[in-house]
Specification:
Number of strands: 0
Oligomer: single chain
Distance between the termini: 27 Å
Organism: Dendrothele bispora (strain CBS 962.96)
Number of domains: 1
Structural class: mainly alpha
Protein name: DUF4219 domain-containing protein
Order of helices and strands: HHHHHHHH
Radius of gyration: 14 Å
Mean pLDDT: 75
């Protein structure tokens, strides 16, 4: 993995496309793309089970992967998604790629609490979900 100082960091609209591609490739390489896409869902086995603890570690690693690749000024847009990397990546795409949909996402976020927000609940737009729609997630590799 690249050193933190060598990573391309999300600065805003001007570098979202390149940043998203690099972050997506890094997530896939780290085995975290399905977590970021919301495919790797929270198990119902309870917080003390090995399955749940492994999922929680993946969730935290996925969040860290994204946060480390963001400038401080862009972090303010995603505060509150620390335990929801799928919602986190979707919201980042809305803010920096799909301009004008921030209010829609905020309403969904307020009604969700700790429930995962689909990386693309509406119509398949957004780079992260386009990547998945192309059949390139870790789940597809296991089939």
């Amino acid at each position: 993995m690249a050193k933190d100082s060598e990573m391309t960091k999300l600065q805003g609209d001007n570098n979202y496309g390149a940043w998203e591609l690099r972050a997506r490739v890094a997530a896939r390489s780290a085995g975290l793309l399905d977590t970021i896409l919301g495919i790797d869902e929270q198990p119902t086995t309870g917080p003390n089970s090995k399955l749940y603890k492994a999922w929680k570690n993946r969730r935290d690693a996925a969040t860290e992967l994204i946060v480390k690749r963001m400038e401080d000024t862009t972090l303010t847009h995603v505060r509150g998604y620390e335990e929801n990397p799928a919602g986190f990546s979707y919201y980042v795409s809305v803010v920096f790629e799909d301009k004008g949909r921030e209010d829609e996402v905020e309403k969904k976020r307020e009604g969700q609490k700790s429930v995962l927000v689909s990386p693309n609940p509406d119509n398949g737009e957004g780079s992260w979900s386009k990547f998945h729609a192309g059949g390139d997630s870790e789940t597809d590799d296991k089939k």
